[in-house]
Amino acid sequence: MAKLVIVESPAKAKTIRKYLGDGYEVTASMGHIRDLPQSQLGIDVEHGYAPQYINIKGKEKIIKELKSQAKSADTVYLATDPDREGEAISWHLANLLGLDVHEKNRVTFGEITKKGVTAGMAAPRTIDLDLFNAQQARRILDRLVGYKLSPFLWRKVRRGLSAGRVQSVAVRLIVDREKEIEAFDPQEYWTVDALLSPPSSTRKFTARLALGPDGKKLEVKTGQQAAAVRAALEGAAYTVTRLAKGKRKKSPAPPFITSTMQQEASRRLGFTATRTMRAAQTLYEGVEIAGQGTMGLITYMRTDSLRIADEAVAAAKDFIAGNWGDAYVCKTKRVYKSRSATAAQDAHEAVRPTNPALTPELVEQSITGDAAKLYRLIWSRFIASQMSDCQQDTVSADITAAGYVFRASGYVVTFDGFTALYEEATDEKEKKETALPPLAEGDVLKLRELKAEQKFTQPPARYTEATLIKALEENGIGRPSTYAPIITTIIDRGYVERDQKKLAPTTLGRVINELMLAEFPDIVDVKFSAGMEKQLDKIESGQEDWHHTIDQFYKGFDASLKKAEEDMKDKKIKVPDEETDEVCELCGRKMVIKTGRYGKFLACPGFPECRNTRRIVQATPGACPKCGSRILVRKSKKGRVYYGCEKNPACDFMTWNEPTAEVCPQCGSTLFKKGGRSGFLLCEKEGCGYSRPLTPEKKE
Questions:
Q1: Same structural domain for residues 419 and 343?
Q2: Helix, strand, coil percentages in the chain from 3-state DSSP, rounded to 5
Q3: Given 311, 367, 389, 572, which residue has the most CB atoms within 10 angstroms?
């Protein structure tokens, strides 16, 4: 054997082996091979926070094989992922196999393609000790917090709990948002809209009341005010008094970085961050494409950088010109500014397809499922980023009636540009703008309808995975590669639960958050945590010593821990049970929700005298179209929600479609919702066949 290349995964090894050919052996370490011990702290706090690494249990066979292969190889290349974790794996491999960390035996691949592998192998370097120390510092900090705080929580609350440097801040954000929602005082307000049409047209458009007769912004807060406005407008003429026309451009969103990829996959595909990263890993490491062989379809997916290689830009523009025409090609070089200011985090490109000419349609002939869906998203986003702006003609009209001013605005797309392919999804409900009919100043319009509608201000929305990731990123908490495991951890620990797509704190999550705020305020302080991230970034760029950073943090943390032990010497916090309206059929008490090994269940609070337990049943508003019984929410083995009759197995009705409170106009059975916002309602009673669009089209 001449040359040995070590990567993390067998899939990556298979793809790279194809490109390297004879004279190379490619093998996989199967991830980390050494780590801190699980059963103890594993950090010598008294002697410079020296970590005590051990071989991971169960990796003995792999380690033996790696040593044997390395011994018989002339050269060993460490080709683990090009990030902190990858650098750490390479450092441990070098130490385990007796390689010199100062030799140029480290290679990285920005993409797993022939070009990417060839370029990586042509530029071996030494292991980046600053990058490794940044990973090591994070690992040690997280271990110190986790292993010191968790036993404290076990003693003062209950066993099985944990706290963490990033996870505790994430829980605080979710709890704080819930408090905002609970404290929110809805304020009444009214909108007054005029449905109008031009004098020589039947086209209707809506204008909203904006200014009062005094020329100031008018806020209608009560029904009486709304009625007074309507009375004042009785019989008034609606005249166009101002018309402003303009042009505007809409630019495409930049290519993905890790966090924006996770956010967009959550919004558009309903993917969790973990599911997104799993699919992205598959696309990066390589898949079999018909006529192309095994190849990596995207660049490395853990990146904070928006940089794009010039040749990738050129390839994208060639593809755009060939498929849409020259007018759709962005004529200037788009340069996107990364949020991260550190050069170390700009080592990679943005997440993009390795070959822009490899369209989703071609890829979907070979792969399906999550990987295919995510590839379409990444490809579309990248290609759109190199397309022309969308051009729009805008118009804004002031319409005066009895001294009151109504406003209407709209636009017409004159050139679709990048929107021909892709537009970024948003978390907020955008105000819909539509095209206005031709108007001219002085036009007296026909009033079709004057409508006053009562509304109430809305509280801030609960976080979704997408908005939580956005908040963590904007506040400088954690790093994109950590968001997926953090969200998984706080849900698995029972601190947070998913309600539809929204994240809500549990009673346990609130209790732990209050305890952390009282005893460990720095750990859950957003600014402190962001400052810690900056210190870790400085280690990565060689500006800070990792021992000093950890020492500064640990001294304050240790003092807080000792104070907390003293404050709570004889105290134990009880997590209150969540009472329900379900009555125990054995003793008459109201049952409470408990959480056990297999999730939540109902239990009698009279334990141990009464040991009655019951499964939690969630009913829907609909009735079974077969027997008329309740329809219950159920979950498949893979966690997918479906709906089934409560009389199962006597009644075998089940459906993936969501029951609604609406009934069929033909037979009176429950209507079910199929598809998303643009879906439809259908009747599932055998022989009926009724269906209609979810939002009926308005006909003028």
A1: no
A2: 35, 25, 40
A3: 367
